[in-house]
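ok so I'm stuck.
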Amino acid sequence: MKKHPLCRPWEHRLSRRQWLGSVAGGTLGALGLGAIAEPLLADELKKKHRQVLFIWLDGGLSQLESWDPKPHTQFGGPFRAIPTSVPGIQVSELLPRTAKLMHHLAVVRSLCTKDNSHSAGVARIQRGDPKNRGVTYPYLGSAVAKWLGAGESGLPPYIWVKPGSSGFITSDAGFLGPKYGAMAFGDGKPPENLLRPPAISSDEDRERNELRARLDRRYAEKRRKENTEANAYVYEMAAQLQKKQELFNPATFPAKDVARYGSHEFGRHMLLARRFLEAGVTFVKVNSYGWDTHGDNFVGHSNMVPRVDQAFAAMIEDLADRRMLDHVLVIMMSEFGRTPRINGHVGRDHWPEAWSLIMGGCGIQKGALVGKTNDKGTFVTSAEHDIGHLFHTWFQALGIDTQKVEYDNAGQPLPLAHEDCAPIKELLA
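replied:
not stuck anymore, here's the structure
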């Protein structure tokens, strides 16, 4: 088939809203309008080099055993509340290390979301629960990877440290396309076959990749960029990871740091996450599983929460000591909280009606406490906040104005976060 020298139509699509904005406001007017604004916004954000650490406690951390304790009440459970470094803020006694660092952090106790199932809640919370527009929105990690880019590290902009398998996870990216998926390090290990086999010399490897790149370009000429760029991208990211193997080699972790973070799985994964942040990775996600405590909630939390407390506090201490909290946004949350009512198995069930999360770092007001629940912890008594409010807040903290910036989905303008929500002003520095 003869090569066509002309551009394809989809390479120059321009939405009506983008055109009107560029005409009406010139360069400044374009700053809020999809694809036209993206290079300008990307350059500005790159200069500031902001990053995100996103800690996901899968299954549902109990707010009553963490950030909103209600001791000596009907549903309060056996654990005490302890003071923190911020007067007026108390947390569960299971979090003594984090309590001493609360002056770096902010707590939200007013989350009221919609889904009480894992299958719906996990995805909708991490996508910001946008309005249904017939498209699949990206997870927060993919969205941040798009807007902030890879920075100067050359490493994948979205790395996911998790138990289980490794690989390139494209499903997180939604309509942004597979390029913005997550590079997963299962059990803290890179994807299989990442490293060059000893039987292949460096010269042979270079020649093979040059041939692959030429074939990729030839293949891409007659196809849409969105359908081909991810394949080349994966090879590029793998090449960068090959050059920086020491980052994820556990033998290079100082014994002192291993002891501080904990030799348990979550501690090891958090220490690896710190390495990636120090290396300049834009978005690092760390997963912990096993928080769905329908039975033996108190035994489960008494085992798991101290491990999280140890590793999370070590991370905050290190980021603060390295002055990285100025440009790293830290978020720790689940898909919902747990019922105040204690069931017949001494467990707590799913409860999206009133739950909590903790965050800190870049753009976040230190020592802030937002929201309040009633004496039993059953419902929010202050202004309720859905996950859309948090997405607006996080984007704003990272320097992305959700009122001016929007996605461009092949000419379809889409808001970054739910239009019925807005940033939580009390959380923003």
